[in-house]
Amino acid sequence: MIVHHGYRDGSGEFFVTVDTKKCDACGKCVPVCSSNILEIGTVFEGLEDRPVVVVKEASRRELKGACAACPHSGAELCVRVCLSGALRVTWSPAT
């Protein structure tokens, strides 16, 4: 299952996307996020809760600012440390 945390509005698209089939909840992405928006949570999949990385509930409407503040913008460290390829960041302000 693909889970999109974030939003699209007149100012652009701002998402952290997790492929729950690939995420093994290793947690390597959590401490490298300079904006501290990631945590290990759960998704209901296959009739059970599975641990996966998620965006903190309080941060979901703040992705525009959180990802903009990332010193690795364009080459996000959270994505680079995800060895399973489960994490993707879309930060695309409208022009």
Features:
95 residues, mainly beta, three-stranded antiparallel beta sheet, 3 helices
- Shape, per Cα inertia axes: globular
Number of helices: 3
Give start-end ranges of low-pLDDT stretches: none
Q: Give the assembly state of these chains.
A: single chain
CATH architecture: 2-Layer Sandwich
C-alpha end-to-end distance: 31 Å
Number of domains: 1
CATH topology: Alpha-Beta Plaits
Could you characterize what this model shows?
With 95 residues, the protein is mainly β. The chain has a single domain, classed as Alpha-Beta Plaits, CATH 3.30.70. The protein is built from three helices and five strands, in the order E-E-H-E-E-H-H-E. The chain has helices at 29-32, 63-68, 77-80, and strands at 2-9, 12-19, 38-45, 48-55, 87-93. A three-stranded antiparallel β-sheet has the order 1-2-5. Strand 3 and strand 4 form a beta hairpin. The protein is globular, with a radius of gyration of 13 Å. The mean pLDDT is 90.
